[in-house]
Every structure is written in C-alpha cells, then in structure tokens.
Amino acid sequence: PNAIQSITWNRNGSLFATTCKDKCIRVIEARSGRIIAVKY
C-alpha cells in the first residue's frame, strides 16, 4: 500500500480503516494486522 493519508477506528478498537494515495480503503484487523477488506 501507499502512504496512509487517514485512519479511523471502530468503537471497540478491533478494526481500523485507512485511506491511501492509491485511493483504496482498507479495513484492517487491529490485533493481527490482517487486511480484511479493500474497496477500490
């Protein structure tokens, strides 16, 4: 992924979403660091 431009967490801190210069949104599992969804 490209450099992260923004990040937001869900209420319980288990997931966060990032946006990057490549214009993708990635949802990441906080504990494992695993990307669980990508929106192009």
TrEMBL record:
- InterPro entries reported in the protein's UniProt record: Apc4-like_WD40_dom, Coronin, WD40/YVTN_repeat-like_dom_sf, WD40_repeat_dom_sf
Annotated GO molecular function terms are:
actin filament binding
Q: Where are the transmembrane segments?
A: none
SUPFAM superfamilies tied to this protein: WD40 repeat-like
Domain Anaphase-promoting complex subunit 4-like WD40 residue range list: 3-36
What domain of life does the native source organism fall in? Eukaryota
User: Per its UniProt record, what Pfam families does this chain match?
Assistant: ANAPC4_WD40 (PF12894)
Which PANTHER family does its entry note?
CORONIN
What's the protein called, per UniProt?
Anaphase-promoting complex subunit 4-like WD40 domain-containing protein
